[in-house]
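Supplementary Text 2. Reproducibility record for the structural model of the 252-residue chain.

All settings were left at their defaults, and a single model was retained for analysis rather than an ensemble. We include the record here because the model underlies the residue-level annotations in Supplementary Table 4.
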Amino acid sequence: MYNEAATVTPLLDRLYAEPTSKEIVVVDDGSTDNSGALIAEWMAEREVLNSQTTRIVHLSHRINRGKGRAIRTALAVAEGDYFLVQDADLELCPSAYQSLLLPLNASEVDWVIGTRQADRRRFRTGHRLGLALVNSMVRLLYGYRLSDAACCYKVARTERVRSMQLQCEGFEFCPEFVAKAARLNLTVREVPVQYTPRRTQEGKKLRLVSDGLECLGTLLRYRRWQPECSDAYNQQSPTKSYGVRDRRGRRA
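Retained model, structure tokens:
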């Protein structure tokens, strides 16, 4: 989350109510609005967690580092069986979780990616063309036939994601994940998810040209990648912890 005061509380409400057993790790990526205070207030109202939430963790970067760094910060403390990234902007809704997890729980594939379903008239022409180019590059370089390689919803076992030894700092998380999943020979399935796109004036942070070029460069960078034996998560992240609330209401 970065400067999402308008959506973070509704998002957390939906996430908390979603029936899948889960932990919630919130990473505030150096927000300069009151997003962090809203999260703390939301957590304070939940002295005892509901039956499907094992714990809630609130972490914060001292400065804005980027989406990829925030994901790596969350991954370092994640305890769940599966790792799923949820942006705080409500373009994608937690109601899709059970559909995303179904092929994984059935051991049918190694990872799952969402494919966004929406009124395509709300997509900017540049975004449609950019996504088509990314999908083509993924197919050419890695053999994956994906219709939406840039979808935020990518789900895999937590240990598999850690084995990717992610290096992303910004929006290159998506192509790095896809590239390394392919290099690890992981099987994939797409699952349709509802998508409500927002525009730049509504807070969308993706930059079409610069982030698009970074995406293509990342796909090229990792085409010969091989995992190392060393643990890529021994490095300390520049975070502050605002506490952990578990199901018994304890704070650490």
